[in-house]
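[Q] Does anyone have a clean C-alpha cell version of this?
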Amino acid sequence: MKRLMIASALALWSLPLLAAPGHEYAFGKPAAAAQATRTVEVVMGDMYFEPRALQVKAGETVRFVLVNNGQVPHEFNLGDAAMHARHQQEMLAMQGQMDHSAMGHGGMNHGGDDHGAMGSGGMQHDDPNMVMVAPGKRAELTWTFSQSTPIEFACNVPGHYQAGMVGKLTIAK
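[A] Here you go.
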C-alpha cells in the first residue's frame, strides 16, 4: 500500500507546476553550470536556509549548490513574493491530490504533512527557477541575473515558507 501511495505521489510530482515553455522571468534566466562566474552553497535544514540572505550583481551567473541537511524534502525556488504565493497554492492543490489518492488506496494521511512521498532525489520541477532536493541529497541550479529587482529564494513545500524558509536575494546594479 505504501509503495502504491509513493508511486502515486511521484507521478503527481512529475507534472509541471507552472508552464515552463515561454515562461519569462524579469530577474534573469537559467544558465549552464559552465557559465557560472561564482558558486554559492546554500544549506537547507528543516525550516531554514543558510545563508538567509544573498547578494548578486546584475549580469552575474551564479551556480547554487543546494545541500539538504533536513529530514524532509525542500525546494529552492527563485522568484518574487507573488510567484511564491502562486506556487504555494499549486503545491497545496497537489498535496490535496496526494492526500486524496492515498485515501483511495487504503491509506490515510490525516496530518497533511506526509513529505516522505515528496522527495526521491531524482524528482525535479519543469520550471528552471526551482529544484526539489530530497533529504541528505545535493542539487544545483545555475542562474544569470539580469536586472535589479527584489526577489526571494524560498521553499514552497506546504507550510515551509510560512515557517520561515525564505531568504532575500538582492540583485545589485
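[Q] Thanks! Anything notable?
[A] The chain is about 20% helix and 30% strand.
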